[in-house]
Amino acid sequence: MVYRTHTPEETKKVAAEFAASLEGGEVIFLEGELGAGKTTFVQGVAGALGFDGPVRSPTFTLMNRYGVEAGAIREVLHLDLYRIEDPSELTTLALEEELGGAESVSFIEWPMDKLPSGLWKTIRVKIEINGDSRVVTVA
Fold first, then answer.
1. How do residues 3-50 score in pLDDT, each as one tens digit?
2. What is the rounded CA–CA span in Å between residue 28 and residue 107?
3. Distance (Å, rounded) from C-alpha 26 to C-alpha 35?
4. What's the whole-number average pLDDT of the chain?
5. CA–CA separation, 133 and 50 (whole Å)
6. What is the distance between the alpha carbons of residues 102 and 129, in angstroms, rounded to a whole number?
7. Whether the Cβ atoms of residue 81 and residue 90 lie closer than 8 Å to each other
8. What is the pTM of this model?
9. Which of 37, 52, 51 is nearest to 109 (CA)?
10. Coil vs helix vs strand at 5
């Protein structure tokens, strides 16, 4: 699916529609340049799943957790691997245990070449800046 948005609110609306399709256990790779709206997308999903607090970029914390109550989903995990230079740094996060759980949905910014492949069923969400709009592709 491909969407075009013009405001952060529109991006959050697309994310909320996407959230309605989640069942738990999904690992979503978020792709897009700095400022494209990856965290805005997670804000929309977390809000749609019942989280009512602030959703912030995990650039410096590496991972944020948001408690939700939406069907089987009880937690949204939001990771940002931008600052990870060596994939061995990820062992301290115990991602094999954290990601893909039936009661969670995980969003990972900057996942490229940093995660072992084939461990989880992944969905890719790519957000591209196109002038004053964003093109959001879910695959």
1. 999 999 999 999 999 999 999 999 999 999 999 999 999 999 999 999
2. 5
3. 24
4. 91
5. 27
6. 33
7. yes
8. 0.91
9. 37
10. strand
SS3 33: coil
Cα separation, 23 vs 71, in Å, equals: 8
Q: How far is CA 33 from the centre of its chain?
A: 14
Task: Identify which of 92, 69, 71, 68 has the alpha carbon closest to the alpha carbon of residue 79.
Answer: 92
**CB atoms inside a 10 Å sphere around CB 71:** 11
If you write DSSP's letter for every residue of 58-83 in order, what string do you get? -TTTSEEEEEEEETTEEEEEEEE-TT
Q: In sequence order, which residues have a C-beta less than 8 Å from that of residue 61 and are 6 or more positions away?
A: none
Q: Is the dihedral of CA 135, 133, 84, 91 positive or negative?
A: negative
The Cα 46–Cα 37 span in angstroms is 14
3-state SS class at 2: strand
The rounded distance, in Å, linking the Cα atoms of 93 and 80 is 12
**Structure tokens, 80:** 């940002």
